[in-house]
Amino acid sequence: MYEDYFSIDDILSTQERIRCQLLVDIPKLGFLESSLSSSLSDDKKDQKEGSNLSSLTANTKLELPYWMVYSICNCKTRFASLPELPSIYARIQRQIFDADASVVDLAKQAPHFYRQGRHLLELNFDEKRQVATTLLKTYQQRFRSIMDSAFHLVLSNDHHHHESMKQKTAKFERQEKIVLLLGQAAFRDYDRLINNETRQMLPPKIQGMTNDLTNVLAAAINRKRKR
User: Fold this and answer.
1) Cβ neighbours of residue 36 closer than 8 Å, sequence gap 6 or more
2) Which residue of 13, 79, 192, 211 is surrounded by the most CB atoms within 10 Å?
3) Residue 187 sits in which domain range?
4) How many Cβ atoms from other residues are within 10 Å of residue 124's Cβ?
């Protein structure tokens, strides 16, 4: 389920709420049904306390974080199902992506679109294949825009063009912004190479990212020296 237990992006993407429908009665969890409790008056709340609100009945619809939905939908005894997908992956939104994915402001609508989508595919629902296809095609359509933005932000000297590209990149979601930074670093290295400012092209380094292989090799060398 979790790609990286300590990844902030992974934690945030699994905190997104998903609507699910209970298949069985669950006692003593009535407080989770916030929609019901908020619609009742204070007098009715007092009357209902300890009775209906103390349990959740089958067919109740709840909005729960993904990590909880994953646990109750994928266990041997299924406690819930997905009656509908999050709006960003719904059929109408998928049609918008098919028409032109580059115009969608993912930073505002789904800042963890790809990561959350990959988590969603671990659940059982009827439109899984369509959602997977949308994730792939959306990335393919937007990748060219990401690379063009990386190129122009590094090499363009036109101020107005530079500002327009910044407005365009503001629509990128989290993973796309990481790819943008990688692209910018690669274009800078390439520019230095063709201008004879460096003798070799180095892998792009981004603050907060580490090269796991380098760390493993360095640790192995240090252990060997100590021996």
Assistant:
1) 30, 53
2) 13
3) 1-6+87-227
4) 11
The domain boundary residue, chosen from 47, 62, 85: 85
11 in a structural domain: no
Residues 139 and 92 in one domain: yes
Cα separation, 140 vs 218, in Å, equals 36
In this prediction the pTM is 0.72
pLDDT in tens, the chain (227 residues): 556 678 888 888 898 899 888 888 888 777 777 544 444 445 545 554 554 457 788 888 888 899 988 888 877 777 888 888 999 999 999 999 999 999 999 999 999 999 999 999 998 888 999 999 999 999 999 999 999 888 888 776 666 666 777 788 899 999 999 999 998 888 888 888 887 776 655 665 544 444 555 565 566 656 655 55
- Considering only CA atoms, give the Rg of the chain: 24
